[in-house]
Each structure stands twice: as C-alpha cells, then as structure tokens.
C-alpha cells in the first residue's frame, strides 16, 4: 500500500495499555500515512489504568510506528491528556523533531489553530473526583471487554457487531448535553482568543463544525478516539477532514502485525538479584 502524503494528522485517545484499544488498527493506519506533522492529542498511553501485565506486542508496535515516523523526519508533537497527565511534569521538552507539551498553537496556511486535549474543562480530574473517574474508567474498560467477547460470539454466529458503550452513552441525555457543552465551551474560548480553528480530543466524539456566536466564529474539530470510533483528523490541500477507519480498506495490511505473546518463554522470579530465570535455555544446552 502506498503511503498517503499528508500535511498534518491529529490523533487522540489511543488509550494504549487498555483492553479497549484497537492497536492493530492504529498500526495499519500509521503505516498507511506519511504526515509532515503528527499531533498526538492526549490519552495516548493510558497511565491511569496502566497495568504492567497488559501491554501486548501490537501496542508496542504502535510506539514503533511512531518512532519510525520520527526517524523518517515527521515532526511529532505529543500533547498530554488526563490519562497521561503524569507526563505533564516533562512538558515543553523537545528532542530533535519530537516535542512534549500541554497545548499548541499552530499557524497553518495563515489560519491560527489551537490544539489541546480538553480535560481542562472537566472538574472530574482532581482529588476524590479523580478517583471516582478512575473507577468509572475501569468500569468502562470492563464494559468494553464484555462487549468484545459478545461481539466475538456474534461474529462466530455470523451476526452483526453491537456497541454497548455507544448505547449506554447515547441513551444518557446528560452525556449528550455534556458533549454539547464541551464543544460550545471550547469554541467560545477559541473565538475569544481569535483563533480560526480549535482542535480537541478527550470526549471520544469526532466532529467538524463551525460555531458562530455574537463575538465571531470558529471551526471546532475533534479527532475522536481509537476505542470505538477509530477516527483521526487529516489536513491536506488547505482542508481538515475526518478520517474514518474502515476494516475493508486494510485487509491486505493485516499480515505485518505479529503477535508473539504465546512464544515468550515462561519467566520465574528467583531472587531480587536474579530477576529472570529462563527454563527453555537451560533445557536446550
Ligand atoms: Mn481524556
């Protein structure tokens, strides 16, 4: 597959290290594009819910693909989100064409574009509220896990997939108004600051729409997520579009992703000094 040359790509909410993450699809997508600038707009590695035992090879391959892009000259801007907020203490670090930051303002072909994750708008990331949000997050993870099991069964029976969390979310009117509030808040703030575009992530709701108020207008964009929507924002020919991952377009690309979890030797912890003891090596000699 030929790589599609693009000016800017914005992705967010990959949530690497969680069960809901579609790492294989992310790898396929990254392999298919060649952007000059890649903006990772928060919640890339899910440090909140980080489970040392769960980081499959496919998730590592996402990082490898991003590294490949870096070594091929793509400028990568990693903007921190709430699930990777522990990286915020290193914000504004720059290393070659890699940059870590909390927000960024880019002038793209004369248009001022403001990019940040968006968790700054919710109060749930502080103190005990944060703990609740975390627990909620685990519940969400479990929901996704049960959902993928049921989908596996449905697929085996030749039936169509269903999305639990989409149903849960869509049925809750509160969530809908919360999304609306989020978009409105971001847009109003961007208008106040006289930006032409504002780009967020965080709410897992891909979007591109113009917001007009008495003060002016702005184009609000959201890159969505790679848990459910599998979307990214792409900028080319002076225009932003929402990319939607479609499995059919990537059938051929599936092969390169190797899963080797099962081939790993069984490891035993013996003492603090000897951390690894590999049975298979001892048997072979
Ligand atoms: Mn977030």
Molecular structure report:
The protein has helices spanning 23-32, 57-71, 127-156, 164-171, 173-192, 279-284, and strands spanning 4-11, 33-41, 75-79, 93-95, 98-101, 103-108, 111-116, 197-200, 207-213, 216-222, 231-236, 239-244, 267-268, 277-278. Helix content is 31%, strand content 26%. With 285 residues, it is of the alpha/beta class. Strands 4-5-3-2-1-11-12 form a 7-stranded mixed beta sheet. Strands 6-7-8-10-9 form a 5-stranded mixed beta sheet, with helices on one face. Strands 13-14 form a two-stranded antiparallel ribbon. The N and C termini lie far apart (44 Å). The chain has a single domain (4-284), classed as Metallo-dependent phosphatases (Purple Acid Phosphatase, chain A, domain 2). Residues 124-132 have low confidence and may be disordered. It is globular, with a radius of gyration of 20 Å. The longest helix is centred in the middle third of the chain and has 30 residues, at 127-156. It has 6 helices and 14 strands.
Largest sheet: 7 strands, mixed
Encode the helix/strand succession as letters: EHEHEEEEEHHHEEEEEEEH
CATH superfamily placement: Metallo-dependent phosphatases
Q: Name the CATH class.
A: Alpha Beta
What is the arithmetic mean of pLDDT?
A: 83
| Count of the domains | 1
Q: What is the alpha-carbon Rg in Å?
A: 20 Å
Shape, per Cα inertia axes: globular
Number of helices: 6
